[in-house]
Write the structure tokens for this entry.
Amino acid sequence: MSGLALVIVLVAALFHASWNFLAKKSKKKMAFIWWFLLIAVIAYFPMFLYFWPRASVSPTGWACIVATGILHALYFWFMGGAYERGDLSLVYPLSRGSGPLLVPILAIFFLHEQLSIVGIVGIVLVVFGIYFIHLKTFSVASFIEPLRAMRGSASVWALCTGGTIAGYSLVDKVGVGLVYPPVYIYLMFVISLILLTPYVLVRQRAALELEWLVNKGPILIDGFLVIFTYLMILFAFRLSKVSYVVAAREVSIVFSAFLGIIWLKEKHASQKIAGAALITLGVVLIGLSN
């Protein structure tokens, strides 16, 4: 993985952890998500107007834009549903860990990527680090607790979230090679917002006004960061293999864990630090891989 791609991914990971930190503190997740998507679409419209005349989108490019818009809408929907049904300590490792686990397998078959042994070891360490960081203790019972919970509905929603991460990552790897990233990402978020709007207006209408009144500041911040952060990832896709980018960006979980320990006074600091160390080592190996 090139040094520039790794730096872009690490900075994006910090921003990703920051906007997720604010989203985690919201009251109604889907209402909060809808608001920051709306703000993002409004705020980045000038960017879209600037780059649109320079864009020449092929039919395949349009297919990628529509596909990723649908997958991102499903991602936000599954993520909100998972958090409504299960604890963060169960949902987050399953959703974020299954993405990096699935992407290399799919990328080998569909994109014909060739991964080095060092890169594969790095990806495995990232996945295990994500698992470690959400353990309550280092006991055997704690290790198998998430596996026992796999039968629950929250786990199904979390795994569906991870599946959408794998899906849109592969689509976006192809899409940004066909469409300039600022145009690609803007249209993607427009489609996601349109698809989520009927559900939010029907099921979350009462929560919209309250969420805006209570979390106006965080919504505005996330509205800026959500597009800016993923735009950086799209540029990284143009520079490196999708398997490495998706795994390396999970260093955001390290930043998120330390934010939780320091500012939210979350428990199980030892497990979070151990998981963070594994993720960091995995990212270092990915950075050294070809």
User: Anything to note?
Assistant: DSSP finds 13 helices and no strands in the chain. The CA atoms of residues 97 and 127 lie 5 Å apart.
